[in-house]
Design goal:
Elements lengths: L14 H7 L3 H12 L16 E3 L2 E6 L6 E3 L13 H13 L6 H8 L4 H12 L17 E9 L14 E11 L13 E10 L5 H11 L5 E5 L13 E5 L5 H7 L1 H17 L8 H13 L6 H10 L7 H6 L13
Parallel strand pairs: 4-7, 7-8
Antiparallel strand pairs: 1-2, 2-3, 4-5, 5-6
């Protein structure tokens, strides 16, 4: 059962609510146990189902009454082998999922009173590794909706290396375009169009293989797809999409008329990267794209996103600190694109 369907797992709707639900590590452990086992605890060693022994001074450990073997609540989660208290992990999940602009590692370190920046950096990246569902579905597929697809360069300018030389990263985006009901608030903005779900991923280049592969991995065939007239999208109709390329001719009014939503997403993304994180390194950019996507797709119910994040974090392999700093860790991508 999806954790979002679990009525027995409340989610905090405010800061006082969070403090009441999770006053200490024991409360966090009880919530984590309930989220991992639907009914009673099932021992992974002997398979016996029943109420386990619990330890007041070790809330993250359960002991089977039958085989007497211990089971760690965090084993198999992003919190595995962490010496950080459960309450800090829950605070991190709450802050990163509920705050609209998110927070940087420096802000997180300051607010939680952590002594080392590296601890805050690792915790946030481990949570970001759980922000992409392994069974993530593709967007689009509805008759009354279409999908806008475009790509942009992300990153700062490079100085002193000659004209046209830069170290920016190419990012591709696909976003559902929905329409508001007539007579509702803001129904006249952009002809009532607004963004549904979004998918973001680093693209190797602007070739048909990269851009076409991104669309095939993120958008359901048969969907009306609107792009610019770049040659990298030429094969979409052959791949089964109702492809409508738009010749923009450098005219911003054409972009605003036919592809306003994906450009708005790019604008919000760049503002967030520069404003909150003051830029990110290329090797970790995909992780930040995943965080932006996770929060953007849940912007209408941000506090429920806390429960969703904990649910996905309970079955996700997290990166190690060494893997993060060396660049060996491959951040997950939307619908497996680029793997």
């Amino acid at each position: 059962m999806d954790i979002l369907d679990r009525e027995d797992l409340p989610f905090p709707e405010s800061l006082p609510s969070f403090q009441r639900l999770f006053p200490d590590d024991a409360a966090c452990a009880a919530y984590l146990e309930k989220s991992r086992w639907l009914d009673d605890f099932a021992c992974p060693h002997c398979g016996v189902v029943g109420d386990p022994f619990r330890f007041k001074n070790r809330p993250g450990v359960l002991r089977c009454r039958s085989c007497r073997k211990n089971t760690g609540l965090t084993v198999g989660t992003v919190m595995e082998r962490s010496h950080t208290p459960l309450s800090v992990w829950f605070w991190a999940a709450y802050l990163v999922s509920s705050q609209t602009p998110g927070l940087s590692a420096v802000q997180f370190q300051r607010q939680l009173g952590l002594s080392r920046y590296e601890t805050a950096f690792s915790i946030l990246h481990k949570l970001r590794s759980a922000m992409v569902r392994p069974d993530q579905d593709r967007i689009g597929g509805l008759v009354d909706q279409h999908v806008e697809v475009d790509e942009t360069w992300v990153g700062g300018q490079t100085r002193g290396e000659g004209r046209g030389v830069h170290h920016k990263v190419l990012v591709a985006a696909a976003v559902e375009v929905r329409r508001r009901e007539p007579g509702t608030a803001q129904d006249k903005r952009r002809d009532g169009r607004y963004a549904g779900r979004v998918r973001l991923s680093i693209a190797a280049d602007r070739s048909a293989g990269s851009l076409g592969g991104f669309v095939k991995s993120t958008v359901i065939p048969g969907t009306l797809v609107i792009t610019d007239d770049w040659s990298g999208y030429n094969g979409l109709r052959t791949d089964g999409y109702n492809h409508h390329p738009i010749a923009q001719c450098g005219d911003p009014e054409i972009s605003e008329e036919f592809m306003p939503i994906v450009h708005l997403v790019f604008s919000n993304l760049k503002t967030w990267l520069n404003g909150i994180h003051h830029g990110v390194s290329p090797k970790h950019l995909q992780a930040y794209l995943n965080e932006f996507t996770f929060r953007f797709n849940r912007r209408f119910y941000p506090f429920n996103a806390f429960r969703s994040l904990l649910g996905m974090a309970g079955s996700t392999t997290a990166p190690t600190a060494a893997g993060l700093y060396s660049g060996e860790w491959q951040h997950p991508t939307c619908c497996g694109y680029g793997r």
